[in-house]
Design goal:
Layout (H helix, E strand, L loop, with lengths): L21 H5 L3 H5 L5 H4 L13 H11 L3 E5 L6 E6 H9 L18 E2 L4 H11 L3 E5 L5 E6 H27 L12 E7 L9 H12 L4 H21 L4 E8 L2 E8 L7 H4 L9 H5 L7 H8 L2 E7 L3 E9 L23
Parallel strand pairs: 3-4
Antiparallel strand pairs: 1-2, 4-5, 6-7, 7-8, 8-10, 9-10
Helix pairs in contact: 8-9, 9-12
Length: 348
């Protein structure tokens, strides 16, 4: 969420009827996410072949054939304003009428559906789906023609973005997975800190997601990253739901051990033993309506962590510790892939 949205209403009532579960969120693909990140200007074709309104359909035929294109924007020579489009379908109609010498304005389409170069790609995808069109003229801030967007441009642009993602992520993984190799100390560790706000459902799960990604980059295997991610997610949501002012999560990553410390300053847990029982919850009805408060948070943490310590005092707060132990070559940050073998430069 952008900074301008910081005053957005985050009360539980705001989410009624709009609950997004972990399962639903997990189905959002990177391609779908990119559609909300890439601008139309990032993927459109800006090298255009245009014609002016004084050309004939014969000129259209020659231009399409020589450039292997299926649509031509018609632009005013003086103002550079977009006047219309001539497509392959228009040309076929012209040929069927044996009217190849006609002025192109006779056949061009003037009722155009356009998009803005500064809009996100998702807006163009909506228009493609709604109209069934194969191409969309793109206008700049001044309303003049900036490019053409086709479905092929969208596909190629997304593939380029995914390739860039992959290369960038591989570089990050290689650098992170060798983090501790050249550091000389008796005990090296990386500490990650996150502040969790009370009732901040908008960012719920953000910290656990970032920690999971960091572990994967450091070379942790997927199963370990998943266990740590689930444990921290449950603790994160407990801070959002059950605390008075939120709390903090500290993650200490060492080659052979991951320690997670979760603190808050109230209201505390009245009966820790009861809170550890599956299905026990003190969540309000309002929280339950949002799909939370099933009473499985602490039991899930206990199942994921190798060691768990929970201490709480009424009116003073709660301190939760999770430990995850790595064995043998299954270490992080020392050049291992997490698959039981040492990484080489070629593997990275």
């Amino acid at each position: 969420m952008n900074n301008r949205d910081t005053n957005f209403d985050q009360s539980p009532s705001r989410f009624k009827g709009k609950i997004i579960t972990d399962e639903m969120a997990g189905k959002i693909t990177r391609v779908e996410e990119l559609a909300y990140i890439l601008k139309i200007s990032d993927v459109m074709s800006s090298s255009l072949k245009t014609l002016s309104p004084d050309h004939s359909m014969q000129d259209v035929l020659v231009t399409m054939r020589e450039n292997r294109i299926s649509g031509i924007p018609i632009v005013d020579d003086d103002s550079h304003a977009l006047l219309g489009m001539v497509s392959t379908e228009d040309l076929i109609k012209c040929l069927a009428n044996q009217d190849i010498d006609a002025n192109l304005t006779k056949y061009m389409s003037t009722k155009l559906v356009t998009v803005n170069s500064f809009d996100y790609l998702t807006e163009a995808l909506k228009l493609f789906a709604r109209t069934g069109l194969g191409r969309l003229p793109v206008l700049d801030e001044n309303g003049t023609l900036a490019g053409i967007l086709t479905k092929g441009d969208v596909t190629y642009g997304l593939l380029r973005a995914l390739e860039h993602d992959y290369i960038e992520e591989e570089v990050r993984r290689y650098r992170a997975s060798h983090l501790f190799e050249d550091i000389e100390s008796d005990r090296s560790s990386l500490i990650l800190r996150y502040t969790i706000e009370h009732y901040d459902f908008t960012h719920g799960g953000s910290a656990s997601s970032k920690i999971k990604r960091a572990l994967l980059r450091l070379g942790a295997n997927a199963q370990l990253a998943r266990r740590v991610g689930i444990g921290i997610y449950e603790a994160e949501m407990n801070l959002i739901i059950h605390t008075t002012h939120g709390g903090t999560i500290h993650v200490e990553i060492e080659p052979h051990q991951i320690s997670v410390y979760v603190w808050d300053e109230g209201p505390g847990i009245e009966d820790v033993d009861m809170a550890m029982k599956p299905g026990y919850s003190t969540a309000t009805e309002e929280i339950r309506e949002l799909g939370f408060g099933a009473g499985m948070g602490l039991p899930n943490i206990a199942r994921c962590a190798d060691e768990m310590d929970l201490r709480s005092e009424l009116g003073k707060g709660t301190h939760l510790t999770m430990k995850f132990f790595l064995k043998g070559e299954d270490v992080v940050g020392e050049g291992y892939t997490g698959k039981g073998k040492k990484e080489t430069e070629n593997d990275a």
